[in-house]
Sequence to fold (177 residues):
Amino acid sequence: MYDELKTCAAAFFCNKGKEVFTEKEFTMYISLDLRWMPVKEANTLLLLLLNEGIFEKIDNYLKAKIDFSDIDVPVAYKPSKELLDYVRSSMKTTPEQKNETKSVKKKIPVDSDDPLPKLMEFAVSSGIKKGAFIAECNQIMKKMNIDIEVAALIVLRDHGADVSPYYDDIYAYVANK
Fold:
């Protein structure tokens, strides 16, 4: 299963085109853009990749801990049924394992200063569906090679929302990344 996890991670990097990313970027990209699995399963996949030493967490960012250059990723890769079953079975754990998983989750702090959840909330209150918002943000982020928070401002602006109150916060957040 380790080889399949490495192939899945390599496919993510090939598709994403970035070397460093946040947890949220990983789970949203896997679930909403690539549509490989639901968000909860993508979170479990991330934990598996961290536990297997394929990814590492540095501050609030994730990056590959291994070299993917020797991995042959098939065109239009999708995780195998076996990998999906493995991820799902990893979600169903005993109470002892759940406590271990909670301790692993505690080691991965969530960035409380991240303005993306606020922008997402604003988008939903403006009538934009959450999934469509994230997909548009990811599209613009890839196309323009910008941070997702800046892409979120562009999406909101394009939908007619007044984003001027968010400029300073986004600027400060992106400048401190």
Observations:
- The longest strand covers residues 55-58.
- Confidence is low (pLDDT under 50) at residues 94-111.
- The chain has two domains: 2-107, 116-175.
